[in-house]
Automatic annotation (TrEMBL), chain A:
GO terms (BP aspect): Notch signaling pathway; protein processing
Keywords: Membrane, Notch signaling pathway, Transmembrane, Transmembrane helix
First-listed, main subcellular location of the protein, grouped into a coarse class: membrane
GO cellular component, one term: membrane
Signal peptide (from-to): none
Transferase among keywords: no
InterPro entries according to UniProt: Aph-1 (IPR009294)
Membrane topology of the entry: Multi-pass membrane protein
Protein name: Gamma-secretase subunit APH1-like
Keyword Ribonucleoprotein among UniProt keywords: no
Cellular localization per UniProt: Membrane
Protein family according to the UniProt entry: Belongs to the APH-1 family.
From TrEMBL, chain B:
Subunit structure: Homodimer.
Keywords of the record: Endoplasmic reticulum, Golgi apparatus, Hydrolase, Membrane, Notch signaling pathway, Protease, Transmembrane, Transmembrane helix
Documented EC number(s): 3.4.23.-
Pfam families: Presenilin
Record-level GO BP terms: membrane protein ectodomain proteolysis; Notch signaling pathway; protein processing
GO cellular component: endoplasmic reticulum membrane; gamma-secretase complex; Golgi membrane
Organism whose genome encodes this protein: Dipteronia sinensis
Transmembrane spans: 12-32, 68-92, 104-123, 129-150, 157-174, 180-199, 388-407
Name of the protein in question: Presenilin
InterPro entries on file: Peptidase_A22A, Preselin/SPP, Presenilin_C
Localization: Endoplasmic reticulum membrane; Golgi apparatus membrane
Chief location of this protein within or outside the cell: endoplasmic reticulum
Top-level taxonomy: Eukaryota, Viridiplantae, Streptophyta, Embryophyta, Tracheophyta
Length: 250, 477
């Protein structure tokens, strides 16, 4: 993989999050801090998980179910962390509101809350992409590329970049969905997020089959698009509700 | 629509974090490009940091460890002596000597260390430059750097840029130290820092207390996070700032209008100052009030400190007699807090060398830049993922330090217990953690463990391919 190809793969995986970062996050310092904190949290979850699973790895068996267990535990742990993150965010919101009252500025708008959730999700997603895609790219600069037997059609790095992009999208927007779900007590949204995460993780198991990546990646992108659509619909609904409520006040 | 508070909170933290990040990024890039290409030019350098013991790769680990410990001990003693010397010099008011010494050392660092780094860059990219041009460029670069360090007339951006530059150069230089010495040295310096800043009679503590009692700038190389004004403008400016900063927001609008009115008259400068002094008095009364506010206020007010970036929505232009001064609408209580902090907090800062809050925003000692960047730069020699983890750990540690800076400086009855117990541990953890994740990858065995961790995690929810681990390891070796 040449340097140009490496940059291309990196942009493929992280380009959307980069533009999101520049257009939304970078203007507001607090959101940058949120991204950093959430990245760190994801990293800690990674270290804890790998510390626990260290005893059983590497899995020598050729069957898929140990990997499934691995995925289920990991997703479970990370979803648990999401609940913790929500609780922490809830306290933070109270603090921010109290502070806004004190300096007589308006409280957090609905869009602000959503942006905080977006920043949190983006942190998770970026951490994911860096560890699962960039970490493969950086040691592999040189005049060749690499194919895997099980997926002979696409270069390995391209596959990893594509998968990373899908996961970044899912992580980023499922955080928005989850926070809104928690805020409104909407059970569907609350269960939608872990389900999506688990399904996306499980879909990667398809790659085990020979030539599986041809099927697995489209399914993964289907899941990502589903997340996007759900998130978009929900945000649109809440914004219109909010606007009509504000309209009633006036 | 009024802007929400999200836009202003935390800008000060970002103001400190972004130069640190830039510095680390540059060091990593430098180390990554230079170390990968020219392993032959890794000639061992001889500095104060490895006077006693010169590490060779054939030594046994115990020998290396002992040698590294000795090196670190000598270096720390050396630094302690120098710092005490500085304190003594400063105590007897040799400020000019100190400043000139700092200028000289800046010249030296930029000229020789920077020069050698430039040379290796030129060699690595085979840039066609003749020696005379190169010398001229280097000389110009150096002279401007020296001028920018303590003189008032330079644009703040230039000074900040040179501070980052100095940090990058020194850090890159320090990454050439032998491996074990670097690690032991980093740990030793962290401990030294804690002692020197926190212990009663610690040299840095003495220095900072002395500086704040004299109400002077510290004659040291520190990074200023916020743009300041040059000396001749300062009186008018600070008066205005006090004026604006000293009142609550609703009233400040009127006062701004008032100050604009009075500034229009050419004779009214003294008057303005008088008003400012008045407000200052009020402000000191208010200080006590501020202290009683709960932690959270402080915490986030600290976030407001910079207030020259996004939070100056209400900035108003005052046509003064001398200059056009832009008065920033600062978050109202910040200035007071800074003033109060100067005395109370000066000596009790936590964490690293020169994190000082004075009346011009947060300052970060250049030593911290170097300290962080050496850590990251050393990590860059192994694996970029380690760099990433280190970066996050360091930045979070820095964030905690900044929060602690505000939290620990004063007695806060409303402080939740959690912060009492949690924060110092968090700070220590992040420092230790930062060292540890790199320390882990120090030895090849641990590199494997670390990358194994990553691999196993990779398997957890991503692309799972047979023989994948082997392949990646083959690529990376």
């Amino acid at each position: 993989m040449t340097v140009a190809a490496g940059i291309g793969y990196a942009l493929l995986a992280l380009g959307p999050s980069l533009s999101l970062f520049i257009s939304v996050i970078a203007k507001k310092p607090f959101l940058i801090l949120t991204v950093l904190a959430s990245t760190l949290l994801w990293l800690i979850s990674l270290i804890v998980l790998s510390g626990v699973w260290r005893a059983f790895l590497p899995l020598k068996s050729t069957t898929w179910w140990p990997y499934a267990i691995l995925i289920i535990t990991s997703v479970g742990f990370q979803e648990g962390l999401r609940v913790l993150l929500w609780k922490a965010y809830k306290r933070l919101e109270d603090i921010l509101d109290a502070f806004a009252d004190r300096v007589s500025k308006p409280r957090l708008f609905l869009t602000d809350k959503m942006q905080i959730a977006l920043a949190g999700g983006l942190g998770h997603g970026v951490a994911h992409a860096v560890f699962f895609c960039l970490s493969l790219l950086t040691p592999a600069f040189g005049p060749a590329t690499f194919f895997v037997d099980r997926c002979a059609q696409i270069p390995f790095f391209l596959v990893s970049a594509q998968i990373a992009l899908a996961f970044v999208t899912i992580h980023t927007f499922s955080m928005v969905i989850a926070f809104n779900g928690y805020a409104q007590g909407n059970k569907v949204d609350q269960y939608f997020v872990p389900a999506i995460h688990l399904v996306a993780g499980m879909v990667t198991l398809v790659n085990f089959a020979s030539g599986g990546c041809v099927i697995g990646i489209p399914i993964l992108y289907l899941v990502a698009v589903l997340t996007l659509i759900h998130c978009g619909k929900m945000v649109f609904r809440r914004l219109t509700e909010n606007r009509s409520r504000q309209g009633n006040f006036q | 629509m009024e802007s929400s508070i999200l836009e202003s909170i935390g800008s000060e933290m970002i103001g400190v974090m972004s130069p640190v990040s830039i510095c680390m990024l540059l060091v990593v890039l430098l180390v990554y490009t230079l170390s990968s290409s020219s392993s032959s030019s890794d000639a061992a350098i001889r500095t104060a940091a490895n006077l006693v013991y010169q590490e060779t790769s054939t030594d046994s680990p115990t020998e290396k460890l002992e040698g590294a410990l000795l090196n670190a001990l000598v270096f720390v003693i050396f630094i302690t002596l120098i710092t005490f010397l500085l304190v003594v010099l400063y105590y007897y008011n040799f400020t000019n000597f100190l400043k000139n010494y700092m200028r000289f050392s800046t010249f030296f660092v930029l000229g020789t260390m920077g020069g050698s780094i430039f040379l290796s860059i030129i060699q690595h990219f085979s840039i066609p430059v003749d020696s005379i041009t190169c010398f001229l460029l280097l000389f110009n670069f150096t002279v401007v750097g020296v001028l920018s360090v303590f003189s008032e007339g330079m644009p703040i951006v230039l000074r900040q840029g040179y501070m980052v530059c100095l940090g990058v150069i020194v850090a890159t230089w320090f990454t050439k130290l032998p491996e074990w010495t670097t690690w032991v040295l980093l740990v030793a310096l962290a401990i030294y820092d804690l002692v020197a800043v926190l212990a009663p009679g610690g040299p840095l503590k003495l220095l900072v207390e002395l500086a704040s009692s004299r109400d002077e700038e510290l004659p040291a190389l520190v990074y200023e996070a916020r743009p300041t004004v040059s000396q001749n403008e300062r009186s008018g400016r600070s008066g205005l700032r006090l004026l604006v900063g000293g009142v609550s927001e609703t009233r400040s609008v009127e006062l701004q209008a008032l100050s604009r009115g009075s500034a229009d008259g050419s004779e009214n400068h003294g008057n303005l100052e008088y008003t400012a002094a008045d407000v200052e008095n009020v402000e000191h009364e208010r200080n006590s009030e501020v202290e009683r506010l709960p932690l959270v206020g402080h915490l986030f007010r600290e976030g407001f400190l910079s207030s020259d970036g996004s939070s100056c929505e209400y900035s108003t232009v005052v046509d003064n007699r001398e200059n056009e001064i832009v008065v920033e609408e600062m978050s109202p209580l910040v200035d007071m807090m800074e003033l109060g902090d100067e005395r109370e907090q000066g000596g009790r800062r936590d964490g690293r060398e020169n994190d000082i809050i004075v009346d011009k925003g947060i300052k970060l000692g250049l030593g911290d830049f170097v300290f962080y960047s050496v850590l990251v730069g050393r990590a860059a020699m192994y694996d970029l993922m380690t760099v990433y983890a280190c970066y996050l750990a360091i930045i979070s540690g820095l964030g905690c330090t900044l929060i602690l800076l505000v939290v620990c400086g004063r007695a806060l009855p409303a402080l939740p217990n959690f912060y009492h117990s949690g924060n110092p541990i968090l700070l220590l953890n992040s420092v230790v953690n930062g060292a540890f994740c790199c320390w882990d990858s120090n030895k090849p065995v641990n590199v494997l463990i670390f990358s194994e961790k990553l691999h196993c995690q990779r398997n957890t929810d991503d692309f799972v391919v047979d023989g994948f681990v082997n392949i990646v390891e083959r690529i990376s070796t």
